[in-house]
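Appendix B. Raw example, untouched.
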Amino acid sequence: MKNTYRITFFTLTFLSVLGLTAQEKQIEKANDEYENSAYIDASEIYLKVIKSGFKSPEIILKLGNAYYFNANYTEAVKWYDELYVYKEQSIDKSYLLRYSQSLKAVGDTKKAAKIYDEFLKLSEILNDDFRNTKDYLDIIEMNSNRYDLDTLNVNSKYIEYGSFFRNDTLYFSSTRNNRSSIGRIDAWNNDRFLDVYTTVFDAKKNKYLKPKQLKGDVNSKYHESSVAITNDGKTMYFTRSNNTLFGKKGKNTITHLKIYRAQKVNGKWKNVEDLTINGDNYSAAHPVLSPDEKTLFYVSDMPGSLGKTDIYSVAIYDNDELGKPKNLGPKVNTKGRESFPFITSDYELYFSSDGHFGLGGYDVFYFDLVAKQQQLINIGKPINSASDDFAFAINNTNKKGYVSSNRSGVDNIYTLVETIPIKDILEFNLTGFVTDKKTKELLANATITVTDRNGKIQSISATNSEGKFSVKINRFKSNIIKAEKMIYTPSNKFIPVEDNKKVAQLELEKNKIEIKIN
């Protein structure tokens, strides 16, 4: 990852320090840096320890993770490859998810699928809707090539990302030259701190104007990003890093994230307040409001999370007090990292994840919060790539929006236009025909009933005048098709998942003799 604000949080069991030898002191120092998210410093020390002749699965795991969390997937694969040799030992198998994502990022999709299948099996999260990674890239391809993508003209050599927009104004975060953080470095990635900026699109010039720092008290000497503003323009929710003392007084700090709320006073953002959903021992970040502004969606690694980071929702009451956070559950959240939620005007959720199988580290996914039959959809290329793709946002009226990605080597913002609507991936049109078993005659008006393996009816239709039919089935489940017609014995055919793409043929045998009477 390129910066703290992609909130790649995690919890790992640290190597016990049993002695005070020089080597053990180095390991203890590296563990301190690792725990404080200073991954570059930690990786350098771990490498020295390994070169000195000491190597253990715990050190290799942390070294691989340190590279992964800074988006150096080539080095991450190198050390995860070495760690995989120790797979029979009692190592936290959650690293297999990061291993798989790293392999995808470097282009080894075949091995990535193998490792991901192993992760699913060991994690005991296999189900009827997602059995393995077979043909999954074909499914991603179904929703690919639906967007036109272009770089934003305000991008610089520094980090830029984020995508809250109101009319022609875009709010984003950047490490470009800003007074609040000059000379200060974030230990996570040896980069400068983020501030919130705005830029306005000039229709006459057909470009975005020079960005300006947000006025008021939102920007500080630490990180700020991911803003959400109410429709009346008076209230802002935003993310800020919170440094909490760790260990001995003044020795180390652990950086967590918090969501704050500010009010607009005379054109400037003032009255910054901490929120009840925050905590000093976990993070909360990336707020986004529901269309009716009665619910706040955000990301956290609070106790009880399913994975490294999960997406939560919390009610906003009339007095601006917040309710009890609710986890969106396993349909959205995984044992990996879910982040950067965005809610459209139609209550569609877009978010980034490395826990669902995708094309790279972070991929953008789609989930309709109000649909009767909910399904998770990878929105495909070109939005998603072998790199990290995140902070997706779109206007459902004009189909224009933004997405951020580090595909160019640094986090940049891209403009997007949706040209083709998203496609259903659960339902699949299975075609077939019904014939007379003896005469091979095509039978019109035969009733076709589709049921699942438990006998639950999925659909009912009939053959046309040519004896052909087309029915919708779940592509991830086995189905049973039943054909019926007067004076014929009903016939059933089992359609396993692997035969979903084949043409189904059913034969009916007459059970009565037809007598013609003058």
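End of appendix B.
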